[in-house]
Amino acid sequence: MIVLLCESIRAFLKKEVYPLESRFLQKGFKSILPELIDLRQRVKAWGVWTPHLPKKYGGKGFSLVEFAKIGEEMGRTPLGHYIFNCQAPDIGNMELLIKYGTEEQKDKYLKPLIRGDIRSCFSMTEPAHAGSNPIWMSTTAVKQGHDYVINGHKWFTSAADGAAFAIVMAVTNETAKNSYLKCSQFLVPTNTEGFDLQRNIPIMGDVGEDYFSHSEIIYKNCRVTQANLIGEEGAGFALAQERLGWGRIHHCIRWVGICERVFEMMCSYAAQRQLSPHTLLANKQIIQHWIAECRADIQAARLMVFNAAEKIEQHGAHHAYEDISLVKFFVANVLKKVLDKAVQVHGSLGLTDDIVLSFWYRHERGAHIYDGPDEVHKSAVARRILKRFGVDINEE
Q: What 3-state DSSP class applies to 113?
């Protein structure tokens, strides 16, 4: 079933979505929104809308490994996950609300999100603090009567432009002896007084819009009721870690999908690009070596992601931290390598927005940074390994 569905999704995206990419790259997301709305309705009619969700919530009930397989196919185009309503950060917010949301929260926020009536964003990173340390932040949520009042400064709140609500991480107990219990998470409608979206942050020259945006937000006396708290007070870090564990699998398999599309583009171009009347680019040994190396790297990356997904399913994310860290930095490096080689093979064409390579080259450089910088994951893996050899390294 999964194999056939993957083939169907690949064919659907190639026929219906790839042709939209040129206009998307040159004129922006909103220029193709009418077509995307139509495609989303067709996906609903097809019965593969929100395939990552349990059947109870209208999804296909796929396991994490099964969803990873179709997620790879969706990743072959920047628009794929959006069309199936399983794009970040909505996919993580859905999973979080299903597990920890109250019935009231599910009715007000989760169900419209599942239907695709609204979008959401996740607001954790702050410009004044290292995003790699999510327990160190200045945004606060202070109880006042039946409410919480939120004040702080966030940025790289992805997809905030046009979102209906944000999930905001803020400090609720600065004096907690356990630093991992300082923060909590809140549902904040974006039309709440005091929610001020300052700007969409330019990413290597691309300001972005709507779903493809990274926003800077000021929370100034932003008041929400205590009913907007997700889970328990002080559980913000634990919720973030669980969300990010699954989220890294989603990201990594999307990167594998990008690699596959880019690899095909590289091979196709090398096979037809003439360097002289009798010589193809593919005849050059260095190009052949790049193709072989990229093929091996992509295969290894895919198997690592599936292995990590299986461990999460069998034992939970808290028992797969090492594997999650490994795939995060390994697949990010494979993505960078394959993208770079593909751009080089395409020459000057690879730098243009006539094809999708330069978009991914700009936007996926962040793969080494978001969801924990590569260096943090490498150190975490090394500490865990060395601890098994009797060396206990304290985190600096």
A: helix
